Amino acid sequence: MRPQDLLHFSLKTITSYPTRSLLIVLAMALGVAAVIILTALGDGARQYVVNEFSSIGTNLIIVLPGRAETAGSFPGAVMGQTSRDLTLDDAHWVGRLPQVSRYAPLNVGVAELSAVGKLREVTLMGTTADIFPIRHMKLSQGKFLSSADENSAQIVLGAKIAQEFFPDGNVLGQRVRLSDRRFIVTGVMAVQGESMGYNSDELVIIPIQHAQTLLNTTSLFRLLIEVRHHGEIDNAREAIRQTLIRRHDGEDDVTVIAHDAVLATFERILRALTLGVAGIAVISLAVAGILVMNVMLVSVSQRTAEIGLLKAIGTPAAVIRYIFLAEAIWLSLAGALAGLILGQAGSWALRLAYPQLPAWSPLWANFAGVAVAVLAGVLAGLLPAIRAAKLDPVDALGKR
Amino acid sequence: MIQLSGITRIFHMGDQAIHALDHVDLTIDSGEYVSIMGPSGSGKSTLLNVIGLLDRPDSGHYLLDGRDVTVLSETEQAQVRREKIGFVFQSFHLIPRLTAAENIEIPLILTGMPSTERKERIAATLQAFNLSDRAHHRPAELSGGQRQRVAIARATILRPTALLADEPTGNLDHRIGSEVAALLEALNQTGTTLIVVTHDRELALRARRRVAMRDGRIETDER
Fold first, then answer.
1. A4, A313, A327: best mutation site toward chain B, by most B Cβ within 10 Å?
2. B79/A316 touch (CB, cutoff 8 Å), yes or no
3. Are A291 and A381 spatial neighbours (Cβ–Cβ below 8 Å)?
4. Domain count of chain A?
5. Residue B18 is assigned to a structural domain of this protein
6. Is residue A205 part of a domain?
7. Whether residues A215 and A278 fall in one domain
8. What was the ipTM of the complex prediction?
9. A23-66 pLDDT, tens per residue?
10. Neighbours of B99 (CB within 10 A)
């Protein structure tokens, strides 16, 4: 029997039993669609998180004073204390590295803000103008620290604070007191909510020198650095570390974290999650495979007389096996294809319903779904095919 | 040429052994027309199945055209069936979802014949069996006589040396039955060995050689 005749013969059998065939195809299709939609959901969630992180900046490097390691190099390490400060001068030196496009030193503290007879405690952040592009923060009005007047006593208020102190909206140019120092309000931040542990709506920002004086410190809390190209991040990290070691008399007493590392961890977790749901979906494919096996077994017993006849006219057992296997393959191929279409339609509907979720199933999931479906179909077809080939022709012909 | 010697076939029913064939010796020459008669359970169908290589004897030797076919593997036996033997059954055994032409086509497909050549052979065969206008009908749409003609066409399209018919007229009325018998006899006239198993006395008497069986043994063998 030639392969094309085999395929034609088995295809004709399938179309002769439309209800039976449709049920199998449907079962297979649902399995494949489950794989595709679930991985689309998982991968969409991963993409969503990656995008969120990228909005903070994937080119970001953070320098902390002190070694965040358990090694007993010096006892203060665990407490975040260090023998040598990370200074503003350190920051300027790092800023001159060729890989660095922007940097923002950071000091954070708490102080009392008072104006127009009102008083409240606020988190204050001392930094430079570059913090805005680095952290993707925006002002709703005014400006902050153009480099010309770096040392002037200006302050930017968080949206909520501005609203509390100046409900009439007339904020710019107002005088406020932070602890015992006077500042002029030059800007108001746009509403942003929580980000990296701070609620920027309840934050005030002042120039770094003023913050250090106010908080009576010379050590930076953090140094945020933006690297020119994402590819340079490892190289830049090393350069920053070397610069700081040199300035700290050869002592490696800072921690340099690439923001990437955090993102990578999240990606790993979500990828594992996607694989997990894909695994669950594969189980549904296996169930579909067992359904194919059941229906094929019933089909073998229904067609006993036909198998007997095929044997009587000299069909070798191997060919009978191929005929039944080919049927299983046709059915699972059709199911896989229908599932592919159904799955893509489902992912499309998901994207329509949740536009912020990029629910595209990854390519591997499409391939794996189809491959597993066909494999399950073939494996499920194997037992019925073997059973059909083993039938005794005399017995088989006796049945009607 | 079919040569059976000492063929024994035993079936087990519970703890009872039934000798369906008990040391049967039978030689049938090419082109013969043989009827095998006997009551139910006399072993006549088993004999036909052994001759047609559908059943293996428990002992004895079977030479088909001088070759011992009892020792062949299942695949080799399938090939012998395909090339040398045609079966005709009481209940026709047509595949219900295939048309008359498609049913006749199956043996040709099995040989791996290209489809253009198959089409010609089928057209010629349908013509010869007067089935041309029924080519695209399914078995359910055919009369009993037409169904058996399709079955005979399928059995003979590869020109087997022996045509084995098991109660070929059993499901047909008298007139149609004798038409089918005449068709089989016409094929025998062209040189095909014809072996008919029946318990219809009238049909059996048409054969030139008549074998009667009882309890797994050959009782009479008349020429």
1. A313
2. yes
3. no
4. 2
5. no
6. yes
7. no
8. 0.92
9. 889 988 998 898 899 889 888 888 887 777 766 666 788 888 87
10. 19
Asked if A206 contacts A176 with a C-beta cutoff of 8 angstroms, the reply is no
Give how far A326 is from chain B: nearest CA, Å.
16
pLDDT digits (tens, 9 = 90+) for A151-201: 678 888 888 888 888 888 888 888 899 888 888 888 888 887 665 556 778
> Which residue range is the domain that position A368 belongs to?
3-53+264-398
Q: Are residues A125 and A224 in the same domain?
A: yes
The answer as to whether B90 is a domain residue is yes
Instruction: Answer yes or no: is B205 within a domain.
Output: yes
Is B87 an interface residue toward A (CB < 8 Å)? yes
Residue B4 lies in a domain: no
| Cβ separation A317–B79 shorter than 8 A | no
CATH of the domain at B218: 3.40.50.300
Is position A77 within any domain?
Answer: no
What residues of A are in the B interface, CB distance below 8 Å?
1-2, 5, 9, 12-13, 16, 305-306, 308-319, 393-394, 397, 400
Q: How many CB atoms lie within 10 A of CB A11?
A: 14
Strands (E), chain A: 60-65, 100-115, 118-127, 139-142, 154-157, 175-178, 181-189, 194-195, 198-199, 203-207, 222-227, 254-258
Residues paired with residue A195 on neighbouring β-strands, in sequence order: A198
Q: How near does any CA of chain A get to the CA of B44, in Å?
A: 13
